[in-house]
Structure formats: C-alpha cells, structure tokens
Amino acid sequence: MPEPASGAVHPDLRTGAPSPWLRRILRGLLGQERRFWVLVVGVGLISGLGAVALLAVLRFTQHLFWQTNSEHFLEGALASPGWRRFLVPVLGGALVTLVSLVVGQPLRGHGTAGIIESIWVKSGRLPFPRALLRGFVSIIAVALGAPLGREGALLQTGAASGSAMSGWLKLGPGQARVLVACGASAGIASAYNVPIGAALFGLEVLLGSFALELFGPIVVSCVVATLVSRTLIADHPSYVIPHYALTHPRELLLALMLGVLVGGASALYVRGINFTSDLLDKLPSWLTPFMPLVAMTVVGATAIAGPYLMGNGYDSVNMALHGTLPLTLLLILPLAKLAVTSLCAGAGVPGGLFTPSLFFGALLGGAFGMMVERALPGGAAPSGAYALLGMGAVLAGTTHASVSAVLMIFEMTGDYDLILPLMLAAVVAAVVSRRLEPESLYTSVLAKRDVRVPASVPHWLREEGVRSLLSPATQRVPPSAPFDEVVVLLLEQPAGADLYVTDAEGRLLGVITLDALKGHLPDHSLLQATVAADVMDTGVQPITPDLSLAEVAARFGHTELDRLPVVDGRRHLLGSLSKGDLLKRGRF
Q1: Model-level pTM?
Q2: Where are the alpha helices (DSSP H) in 30-150?
Q3: Helix ranges, 202-248 (H)
Q4: Model confidence over 391-409: pLDDT tens digits?
Q5: Looking at residue 15, what is its pLDDT?
Q6: For residues 209 and 215, is the Cβ–Cβ distance under 8 A?
Q7: Residue 217: CB partners within 8 Å, gap ≥ 6?
Q8: Distance CA 165, CA 162 (A)
C-alpha cells in the first residue's frame, strides 16, 4: 500500500483517530480551555446527528417490518398477523445472538451504568467501536420488538463520541469525564427533546454534582444536540396531551398517596431487573450467547395475544395519558412489561431501561387515576393526569434523581399546571424507593462490582457525624484511684487506648496515658500516696458530637494521642473516637 503524500491529513485506519499532524494543528490553533469548549460543542453536534441517524434507522426498520413509523408502532403491530408478531421479535433475538457470537462477547449490561462506571472508574474511557456496534444493534432490536428503550443507543453513541474525542486529543481524565457526560446527556436531550431535564440528568445521575463548573458544558452540549434534533426531526413535546390541572388540596393529597405507592413500585422495578439479571448470570457460559434469542422468542409468544409489550411502549403510554386504555390493561401490563423487560435486559438484548420505566409508571398512575374516578365520580381529575404523575414518580423512584425526573416529564408533556403535584409525587416516590432499595436502577449494577460513586447530595449533608464513629469508654477511674490500680488498668487497655478520669457524675476531669506516665513516675517512696488526680493530663481538649469530622481531624493534627474523648455540653464523658476510625470511615 503506498504511503500518503507528505503533509496529507489522514485518519489512523486502525483506530479512526485523526493523524498526529492534525492533532498538532488543533492543539496549536486553540488554547486548552477554548479547545475544550469547541469539543463540548462538537460532542453536542455529533450526539444530535447520531440521534437523527439512529432514529432514521429505527423508522426505516419499523416501516420495513411493521409498515409503520416509530410514533405508530402499536397500530402497525395490531394490524399484523400473529405469525409476524411472533417471527419478527425472534429475528431480532437471532440478530443479537449472531452479533454476540461474531464479536466473541455478549452485548448485555446496562448502558447507563456502564457510562457511570467509565466516568468514575475508567477516567472517561469507553471502547468506541463496541459502543457504536451496541448502539446500532440496540436500535434495530427495539424496532423489531424488543421491550426496551431507544435511548440506550443514543446514550451510548453520545458518550462514546465524547470519550473518543477526549482520547484523540489526549485530554486529561477530568475533561474526559465531563465530555462523556456531555455526550450521554446530549443523547437523551436529542432523543426526547428535553434539553433542561437531560442536562440535570447528566449532573444529578452521571456526575453526581450540581457544581457550576460542570453545568456550563453539559448545558451547551444539550442545547446543540436539541437544536439539531429539532431542526432535522421535530420540534414538539414527545407526548402531546390534553391540558390537565391538579390544584385542589384533595388532589395534592392524592398525588402524595400516588407517590408512596409508586415509590414502592419503583423499588420493585429495580429489584425485578436485578433479580432476573442475577438469575440469568448463573446459567452455563455456553448458553449465554443464545439467551437473547430465547428472551425475544418469549416476547414474540406474548405478542401473538397482543403486541402491547413490544417496543419502547410509546403508544401505550400515550393512550394512558389520554385515558383511553381500559383498567384491566392498566393493571396487567405494568407487571408484564417489567417481566419481559427484565428478561431481555438480563439475557443480553441491548437497550435502555429509561423508557420502559415510563411505561411502568404511566400505566400504574393511569390505573390509580381510573380507580379514583370510580371512587369519586365527577369530583376527580382525569386518569391521564395521574398517568403523567406516575411517569415522573417512577422515573424519580428508579433513578433516585427527582429534580431531573420532574423537569424531563414537564418537557416531554409541556403541561406546567401539573408541576406542583408532579414535584410532590416525584420527591415522595424517590424517598420511599430509596428507603426500600438504597441503590438506584443504575448504581445497583455497579454496587455488585464494588464500584461506588459519590452521592448527589451536598457534601456537608452526607458527612458522617462524630456519634457514628463513637466508641464507648469502658475504663474510667475516679480521681482518688490508687496509683497501682491506674497502672494495672492502663496495661490492660488495648494499644492506643487511654484511661479517663471522671467525677461521680461522669464528667471528664483528665486523661491518663501510659507514655506520659512512664516519664513522670513519682519518687518510689511516694507511690502509695499517689492517686489518679496526681498523674492525669487536664490539658487534653475533648471533642463534642456537634463537630464535623473535618474539625475533629484538625484536632488530631495538634495532638499525639490516638484517641480523643468525646463529651457533651456539660463535659459528661460519652466515649472516645480513634484516629484510625476517623481516617477509615470518615468523609471530609
């Protein structure tokens, strides 16, 4: 193969990266900070164009196999004969199995969880070819009936583009992480026309921080991606629904009740996904590549009776928002959707879990609203309003991110008059779900691999207090304790422990340390007359439970003691805190 002409700009054919010559030009044209912002815009542009391309593939595939487009998938599936409903999903499963066998590894795994792991553990590095392949196979599988979300492909493509650009220009890990989050957020923004909610999703879920330094890049990428999708796809909310309003105090109380119920259902959703995945992990390794085919065969079998479980569920959610689904389906379909979604996700069919959770919540909320309508005829809001609240509540409950959930649902529907009950239901659902299932839909996967990400709450709020590290002070002596008794008790203490001198009411008077005692032994003739009060150190400054752990660490910096006594406002001895426990378990 002939060498390219001198000075030619060409990509590295093995990696797809620009040549070193092109990288040098880019570095020379822009300073580091300006170059980063150019990349932020570039990631948003690529994510938006990638979303347009993938959604075009989705529409083409659905039209080819179902004679319909993505907005009317259910209509085409209902009009199809039973054999087609069965065989088309089976074909999707066969495609995933074939790709898994060709690449030599399954395509399973939660895409968003993998992105979070790449941000916090792998310095923002994602395998670019695998991510693109996974995204393409995911969009085809969803078009063929996989009960998963199309956003999985768009998230993967956006995040992979951010990772690839940071790798090509050899950015540091900090900027690489931000670019990956920018790409993933831009993918969501372009998928659902939700720039505000997607930006907050990137901050709240992916980066775990609302820091102003992170807000700017995320917002710019989401704005650019949304502009591209609005120009080339459509500029309207994802769900066009009637105008709803829930303003009566009774309706706010019903929203609170719905938040509690849906919070429990959200915990069930997370546990159901994880339980099925754990169960399928125990299968023999030789069977793993064929599980997508098995799972999609099950989907095809259920579709013979009715195709409501196939695809991302947009049409069913829209029907619930308009109040046109019967109560029987509103009660049955959420659990059935959870079952087939868990099966396909655990089996290795790539796709998102975001949209199926909207299906789950919308139908549960619609069922709640329809039962309220029957219990309070003429005095309750339409069931579609509660379907909208259910969507937001489940999204908040499964992601533990109530802020971004509220704004996403608002942008998807454009109904501002429901914002108060939506906020209430989302926050309550997130609290209840977190109480029942501490890990979110995404972090639960990472927790199994012992990957921990920072909490998205203020640093000062998640600090452990002094009381959580407190150890009881079992050995105390009165100031009149004889010297020989003091020595025996000190020798019996574990390494680093001291002896505390307290009065009859338990107030701390001083501290006796073995090392200090060695250097200040009194004259042997006076040992019988020496008591604890004569050898205690009254200059040790105790700590109180209201101090932050950072303040306690500063106290340890000014003493050679391995432990410090903890007292209340009246100097009553509560226990002690060791330097080792502080360093091991404290968060500063």
Answers
A1: 0.73
A2: 32-66, 73-79, 82-103, 111-120, 128-143
A3: 212-232
A4: 999 999 999 888 889 999 9
A5: 45
A6: no
A7: 36, 37, 40, 178, 179, 182
A8: 5
What is the Rg, in whole angstroms, of the alpha carbon atoms belonging to the chain?
30
Does residue 363 have a pLDDT over 90? yes
Instruction: Map out the domains of the chain with their CATH numbers.
Output: 20-448 (1.10.3080.10), 461-586 (3.10.580.10)
Query: 156's torsion region: left (phi>0), alpha (psi -120 to 50) or beta?
Result: alpha
Q: Is the pLDDT of residue 27 over 60?
A: no
Distance CA 300, CA 294 (A): 10
Spatial neighbors of 546 by CB under 8 A, at least 6 apart, are: 466
> What is the spatial distance between Cα 131 and Cα 155, in angstroms, rounded to a whole number?
10
For residues 322-339, give the mean pLDDT: 93
Q: In whole angstroms, give the CA distance from residue 60 to residue 46.
A: 21
What is the pLDDT, as a whole number, of residue 265?
96
Tokens 């927790």 belong to residue:
447
Mean pLDDT over residues 274-302, rounded? 91
Please report which confidence band the pLDDT of residue 76 belongs to, taking 50, 70 and 90 as the band edges: confident
Q: CB neighbours (10 Å) of residue 419?
A: 15
Task: Name the DSSP letter for residue 149.
Answer: B
